[in-house]
Amino acid sequence: MDIFALFTTRVTEALRADYPELDAALLSRVVVEPPRDPAHGDLSTNAAMVVAKPLGKNPREVAAALVERFKGTPDVESVEVAGPGFINFRLSNSIWHQVLKAVGAQGANYGRSDLGQGERVNIEYVSSNPTGPMHVGHTRGAVFGDALASLMAWSGYDVTREYYINDTGGQTVILGRSALLRYREALGETIEIPSGFYPGDYLIPVGQALAAEHGRVLLDMPEEEAVLIARETALAAMMELIKADLAQLNVHHDVFFSERQLHGAGGDIEKTLAWLREEGMVYEGRLDPPKGKTPEDWEDREQTLFRATDYGDDTDRALVKSDGAYTYFAADIAYHRNKYLRGFNHMVNVLGADHSGYVKRLQAAVKAVSHNEADIDVRICQLVRLLKNGEPFKMSKRSGDLITLSDLVDEVGADATRFMLLFRRNDAAMDFDFALVKEQTRDNPVFYVQYAHARACSIFRTAARDMPELDVSAAALAGAETELLDTAADIELIRLLGAWPRTVAAAAVAHEPHRIAFYVHDLAAAFHGFWAKGKDDPSLRVVNPTEPTLTLARLALVDAVRQVIRNGLGILGVGAPEELS
Fold first, then answer.
1. Its family (predicted)?
2. H or E stretch including 430?
3. How many CA atoms are closer than 13 Å to the CA of 361, on its beta-carbon side?
4. Mean pLDDT for the chain?
5. Which residues in 90-122 are b (16+ Cβ under 10 Å) and which e?
6. Distance (Å, rounded) from C-alpha 480 to C-alpha 550?
7. Could you tell me which of 270, 576, 329 has the C-alpha nearest to residue 447?
8. Which secondary structure element, helix H or strand E, spans residue 80, and what is its range?
9. Cα dihedral value 281, 284, 286, 287, nearest 10
10. E strand or H helix at 411, and its extent?
11. Taking residues 189-213, what's their average pLDDT?
12. Facing residues of 283 across strands?
């Protein structure tokens, strides 16, 4: 039960009744939301201000007429006009009791919706170069993308989770050379790893595998051939390592797309470039030098250019380098055309902070290859700064001195890692404080939320101990006399439960899973506060052996809180323990 959606429907129906000339597009702009100041009521709508001008009326005049329609409605305690024409509603307790019943009835599905109406969405995230284990810099994007995918699936979208394997280019050759050195080491040679190679110990098993499979044969080959063999073995091993790392965070992808599919004769880049020429989206020309610092990839020459400015980009983009090789952007266009041809009109790319300059060019590419039918949202995950002994800890795959995803999970656990990385907007830099994440205090957000769920479970154990004859089955809770819950503390908690469906929908539309983390934290805080009031005021206690009927109603409320916290944590991919050690 989404009371905001319910009252949006009721308000728009009232407007249609009074003004049948209003069209659906205009009425779709009517919003019902919580007022900025809770003292003004439970709901507020902009309806009068949306329709007043097209009707040629004063907003307060329209608002006054709407207010009259809602006066005397059983579930509306009061309704009034505020400011330039806002309408504020204060709801009767009866509607909050309906919300509580809805939570109990819908259970694990409370907050789910068909908002997406089955629209297919491709969410590409992580896409780390397969040259080593996942480090903390990749972890934030992995968690964000996975939580967003769950959130959108919850909201009725058909979601595909995709990983783009960047398995071509110079870094894979360096990986092959690095693995070949480890192969020589496995054969008993003493090696020295040159600067610019990958020195991490994670390549030692790759060298050993090469030695076991090929013996000393690679030593007798031309080096370039041996490097290619070593590269293939290393790439396969690194992808298995990456998948294992992600599995520790319960991150799994539906599709692993190899960049190699784009390259070579008959590949997607070649096909896409031919298609772009046919569509008149490519021309031969020169680019003006960029303002400020000249990038390394700029060349003052006649070259093949994509008309990116026709699709909102700041400049047209080169597709072919002077040596005849395709640019990275040519691969980007081909890849996103491939997505579009696979049936994805909605795409989300989760990229690291060093890719912030890619947003406009990717948007232009998707508009072009889809003739403006498809859209893409590029979400940038800012850096995570780990504190070690009070000092930033630098990471580099090539140096071998890094904190991996696996290290992080081993240190604080998957739940804490996921929640803390989601407890901030993706586009805001953050510090990950190891000491804080290990604390069992209210200052530790993930502990605070999980403790609320565990506390709710504990209350049921207390009820079983103190009131063993009380039936607390699902059927009994569904039949509880929730109208007995009429204190300000009861209603405040139920009101927050009523905000859950709207929170999920808004987070899905905005592609912001941090809203879910914020919500469950707020709900946990409200529940802890509710429990504390019961310690001081016996009338607010949940378990009261002298009041079995009221106890059952309060247990229905506790169960609803427990369920919504579990639903929220489930979207975030975080466990909801029944006990905390």
1. Belongs to the class-I aminoacyl-tRNA synthetase family.
2. strand 430-432
3. 18
4. 92
5. ebebebbbbbbbbbbeebeebbebebbeeeebb
6. 8
7. 576
8. strand 76-82
9. 20
10. helix 405-412
11. 93
12. 305
Asked whether the beta carbons of 164 and 257 are under 8 A apart, the reply is: yes
Question: Residue 165 belongs to what H/E stretch?
Answer: strand 158-165
Per-residue pLDDT band for 435 (boundaries 50, 70, 90) equals confident
Helix or strand run (H / E) with residue 32: strand 32-33
User: 3-class SS at 283?
Assistant: strand
Count CB-CB contacts under 10 A for residue 1: 18
Residue labelled with tokens 């009820």 = 463
Tokens 């980009």 correspond to: 313
Distance, CA of 351 to CA of 367 (rounded, Å) = 19
Q: Which two tokens stand for residue 112?
A: 């789910």
Q: Please state the pTM of the whole predicted model.
A: 0.91
316 band by pLDDT with thresholds 50, 70 and 90: very high
**What's the token pair of residue 376?**
């893409």
Closest C-alpha to 501, from 453, 454, 563: 563
Q: How many CB atoms lie within 10 A of CB 226?
A: 21
282: phi then psi, degrees, rounded to nearest 5: -130, 145
pLDDT digits (tens, 9 = 90+) for 211-220: 999 999 999 9
pLDDT digits over 498-539, tens only? 999 999 999 999 999 999 999 999 999 999 999 999 888 888
β-strands 120-124, 158-165 pairing: parallel
* 3-class DSSP string for 304-329: EEECHHHHCCCCCEECECCCCCECHH
| One-letter amino acid of 164 | Y
pLDDT (tens digit per residue) in 388-434: 666 776 645 444 566 788 888 888 899 999 999 999 999 998 888 87
- For residues 314 and 295, the answer to whether their CB atoms sit within 8 Å is no
CB-CB contact of 113 with 571 (8 Å): no
Residue 93 clears pLDDT 50, i.e. is over it: yes
| Short-list 73, 34, 70, 66, CA closest to 47 | 66
Q: In what order do the strands lie in the sheet with 43-45?
A: 32-33, 43-45, 86-91, 76-82
Torsion over CA of 217, 223, 226 and 231, rounded to 10 degrees?
Answer: 150
Measure the CA–CA gap between 113 and 264, rounded to whole angstroms: 44
> Which of 36-40, 247-251, 390-394, 469-473 is predicted least confidently?
390-394
Residue holding tokens 């905001």? 4
pLDDT at 398: 46
- Write out pLDDT tens, residues 336-365: 999 999 999 999 999 988 888 889 999 999
384-388 sheet: strands from edge to edge: 391-392, 384-388, 430-432
Q: How much is the pLDDT for 297?
A: 57
Residue 326 amino acid letter: Y
Per the CB < 8 A criterion, the answer to whether 354 and 137 are in contact is no
